[in-house]
Design goal:
By secondary structure, the chain is α/β, with parallel strands linked by helices. It has 2 domains: 220 residues, P-loop containing nucleotide triphosphate hydrolases (Rossmann fold, 3-Layer(aba) Sandwich); 69 residues, Alpha-Beta Plaits, CATH 3.30.70. The protein is 36% helix and 25% strand. It contains 11 helices and 13 strands. The strands form 3 sheets. It has a 6-stranded mixed β-sheet, with helices on both faces. A 4-stranded antiparallel β-sheet has the order 11-12-10-13, with helices on one face. Helix 8 crosses helix 11. The two termini are 34 Å apart. The mean pLDDT is 92. Bound molecules: adenosine-5'-triphosphate and magnesium ion (MG). The site of adenosine-5'-triphosphate has 12 residues, from strand 2 and helix 1.
Length: 319
């Protein structure tokens, strides 16, 4: 890569008494990337975000974010990043407009530009009509939208989003996705996205990192992770419910087919092959067994398949 990493960590570790919340994290994230940060509850995602913003100091190891050390240059760093925390607090006594205007000033947006920038982000999150109401009168999702608007008001080059779409309706969720994609498209904005929504991560992220008990167990694009997890290819065969037993029998008899399973509740069988060259053999074998074939397609694993496979591989790992 030509560009310097936006985030670089070396052995980043954080303990809370006997809990190792983040364990020897080594990450390099480059400008314009959308990195999905995945992991179960308590895996260490939020702690990592806090370490990367200098809100927490590491027990050992180090981080460099936008060329700064978060543990010593936290204040300067936080002026350049946008952060949507896990439980964002917006000032309930003020109006939505006032909340945003205060942050715009804090982030050094010139006074003459504040009004138009606030209007712009209010519009993005469809809060214009309610901008003059006190936040205490907002719904939960409206507060989340306001917190998101606040996180992006200064157009930060690095945006941390901790569960940005939790509590949002599908329309706004889609808008947030579009926004993230547009931000990263120009190559200058980097997004660090903690999410439990695997479909969201699959749609948006260039690479994903998966944490298990504070340790990163995978880092790569979903396609790369799938290649590491499953050799060969998976195939899906649609037949009829009646033909399922004959199809399973015929497919298991082919040498080198693996994991021949019926998709629950569907007349569909999926199986793994070592080589693409085996596909014609699968077809002739099914035809010979009198199994009707309605569809035969390669099956790309979803991020959800990848996530669960990684989890299976690492569940014996000590906490
Ligand atoms: N301030 C703290 N004091 C003590 N323990 C903490 C503190 N913050 C986090 N932890 C512990 O560190 C571990 C990681 O927590 P963290 O909040 O980073 O997880 P997470 O991946 O963000 O989980 P979630 O998906 O539930 O948000 C957990 O065991 C948690 O209890
Ligand atoms: Mg969290």
């Amino acid at each position: 890569m030509i560009n310097a990493p936006v985030i670089l960590t070396e052995g980043l570790t954080r303990h809370f008494d006997d809990i190792i919340a983040v364990d020897d994290l080594n990450l390099e994230i480059y400008p314009g990337e959308v990195l999905g940060f995945l992991g179960h509850n308590g895996a260490g995602k939020t702690t990592t975000v806090r370490l990367l913003n200098g809100v927490l100091t590491p027990t050992s190891g180090k981080a460099q974010v936008l060329g700064l050390d978060p543990s010593t240059d936290g204040a300067e760093l936080r002026r350049r990043t946008g952060v949507l925390t896990e439980t964002p607090s917006v000032d309930e006594r003020l109006t939505g407009y006032e909340n945003l205007a205060i942050f715009a000033a804090l982030f050094n947006i010139p006074p003459a530009a504040v009004e138009s920038r606030v209007a712009e982000v209010l519009e993005i999150f469809q809060l214009t009509d309610r901008a003059g109401d006190r936040v205490s009168e907002y719904s939960k999702g409206m507060k989340q939208k306001l917190a998101l608007a606040r996180a992006i008001i200064h157009q930060p080059e690095l945006l941390f989003l901790d569960e940005p779409t939790s509590g949002l309706d599908p329309v706004i969720t889609r808008q947030v996705h579009t926004l993230i994609r547009e931000l990263s498209r120009d190559g200058n904005h980097t997004v660090f996205l903690c999410t439990h929504n695997l479909a969201e991560a699959q749609r948006l992220c260039d690479r994903v990192a998966v944490l298990e008990n504070g340790r990163m167990v995978a880092l790569g694009s979903p396609a790369e992770l799938a290649r590491d997890l499953w050799k060969g290819m998976r195939l899906e065969v649609e037949t009829t419910t009646e033909a399922i037993p004959a199809a399973i029998k015929a497919l298991t008899a082919i040498p080198d087919t693996r994991e021949v399973v019926q998709e629950q509740g569907h007349p569909v069988i999926s199986l793994s092959l070592n080589l693409r060259d085996q596909v014609p053999g699968v077809v002739s074998c099914l035809v010979a067994a009198g199994v009707p074939i309605f569809r035969l397609t390669p099956k790309e694993p979803t991020l959800e398949d990848i996530y669960f496979a990684l989890h299976e591989n690492h569940k014996e790992m000590p906490a």
